[in-house]
Amino acid sequence: MREKVKAGLASSRFLVQLAASLHWVWAVPLRPFRRAGAWMVGSVFRWYRLLWVRCTHNEYGGFVYWRGGAMILATGVALYLIPVVLGFVAQTALYFTTRNYEEVYLIQSEEIYPDDNVWAVRGCDRLPCDRDSSIYFRISPTPFNHLWSVVNTGWLFVPDDVGSGVPTGLTRCWVRSYGIRIKTLMRRFEIYPDALDISCRNAVER
């Protein structure tokens, strides 16, 4: 009985200490971030409230219900499109700063996410193929990739056409891609260059 009481007191002390430590983290290190977050949320709310009044009230200052409903629907569409637009802008900037056209040696391609039509391609940038020379690409139907394909080929981007063009086995290929290639980041966060076009020539004997 005495041991159970001691164990209960120890657990209670642990919970109190844990709660006090979490409160200190919230009150001290996170304080500047909380203030910045509160300022950002407040600014967005004030801006949205002004926009709401302007869009949902008539010239006499009366609230119009159908305008309010339209504003809610427009807000939902905007919340859906904002991440898409930001991703497109980020990919566009990444393309113009990291685009590359290189001769590499590819080994295999496979569709890893069939529902999203995403392919993975692996190979090496020089011979012999080993851990140090290994490289990886992703092929995915992003909005930027679609736009690039329309501008350069006249058709939407089809990952199956690009991925299926990689033969099984060590093959010399030309790859048009963009993105960063840092193996530490790639393995931990699955960040890979995007392949836009792959042209393979002849197999290479190992």
**Spatial strand order of the main sheet:** 3-2-1-4-5
Beta-strand percentage range: 15-25%
The total count of strands amounts to: 5
Instruction: Round the Cα radius of gyration to an integer and report it.
Output: 27 Å
Task: State the helical fraction.
Answer: 40-55%
Main pleated-sheet profile = 5 strands, antiparallel
State the shape: flat
The rounded distance between the terminal residues' Cα atoms is: 72 Å
| Succession of helices and strands | HHHEEEHHEHE
**Classification by helices and strands:** alpha+beta
Transmembrane segments: 70-90
Keywords: Membrane, Transmembrane, Transmembrane helix
Description:
It is a single chain. The longest helix has 34 residues, at 65-98. This protein has 206 residues and is an alpha+beta fold. It has helices at residues 2-27, 31-56, 65-98, 143-153, 159-163, 183-189, and strands at residues 100-113, 118-124, 134-139, 171-178, 194-203. The termini are far apart. The chain is 53% helix and 22% strand. The model has no long low-confidence stretch (mean pLDDT 85). The protein has a five-stranded antiparallel β-sheet.
